[in-house]
Amino acid sequence: GFVCLIVETIQYGEVWGQHHGCYARGWFNWYSRGYTPAGVEVWNGIRGLDLLADRPEVDKENMGVTGISGGGAISWYIAAADPRIKAAAPVCGASTLEAQIETRTIDGHCDCRMHINTYRADFADVGSLITPRHLLIGQADRDGLNKVESVRQIYHDLKKMYELHGVPENIDYIETPGGHSYHKTSREKIFSFFIKTLMNKDVS
Predict the structure, then answer these.
(1) Which residue has the higher pLDDT, 22 or 136?
(2) CA dist., res. 86 & res. 61, Å (int)
(3) In a 3-state reduction of DSSP, which class is residue 88?
(4) Structural contact between residues 110 and 35, judged by C-beta atoms closer than 8 angstroms
(5) Measured between alpha carbons, how far is residue 12 from residues 16, 61, 74, 121 in Å?
């Protein structure tokens, strides 16, 4: 089986903090100061990996991450930042910069979605830091926050990166009907993805 740790997001539970400084309060000085809740969430995720790695029942050589929306974005960032993640399955957590600006979907995202992006890195650049480890990108086709066309573009761009590494089989994409949400098909795909990549068992 799997040992699972659910990391509580700041502001919405017992962890103090603000998620909506720029989104709702006009605190754009956050960015000039180099602060974003995304950084806090990634740090909390990394410390969560430290906790799991110290537990005797956990195989620290086979750890994964998944999440949706802000949790999807943080799944990208944690996997990019920490090589202990062997498999990542972010859902509805990515979009190209071009699409975010053109369609103004950026207006609907809370601040945990936005990393400090001084060098204007796109999500394919974030994903390239995950290469060649296992990556499953999940996306809903009517997501009002991440246009499906842009997520397809990220997948195709990253697929080329995986091909350069000689492991095109290590990246996959699942598209499901509906809005900004999971779907029965995506959940089943994610479960089988982790069983395959972390336990080497094929249940698909």
Answers:
(1) 136
(2) 8
(3) strand
(4) no
(5) 8, 31, 16, 29
User: Exposure pattern of 112-122 as b/e (b: 16+ CB <10 Å)?
Assistant: bbbbeeeeeeb
In 3D, which of 204, 198, 159, 202 has the Cα closest to residue 59? Answer: 198
- CA dihedral angle for residue 114, residue 61, residue 68, residue 34, rounded to 10 degrees: -10
Handedness of CA 161, 194, 46, 69 (dihedral sign): positive
- Check if the beta carbon of residue 90 is closer than 8 Å to that of residue 67: yes
Ramachandran angles phi, psi of 56, nearest 5°: -65, -25
Polymer length of the chain: 204
**Burial call 123-140: b when 16+ CB within 10 Å, e when fewer:** bbbbbbebbebbbbbbbb
Q: Which residues contact 156 (CB under 8 A, 6 or more apart)?
A: none
User: Going edge to edge, which strands form the sheet with 63-68?
Assistant: 63-68, 85-91, 134-140, 171-176
pLDDT reading at 81 higher than 90: yes
User: What value does the mean pLDDT of the chain take?
Assistant: 93
Q: pLDDT tens for residues 61-72?
A: 999 999 999 999
Residue 12 pLDDT > 90, yes or no?
no
What are the helix (H) ranges across the chain? 21-25, 29-32, 37-53, 70-81, 97-102, 123-128, 148-164, 184-199
More confident residue, 95 or 115: 95
pTM reported for the whole predicted model: 0.94
CB 101 within 8 A of CB 124: no
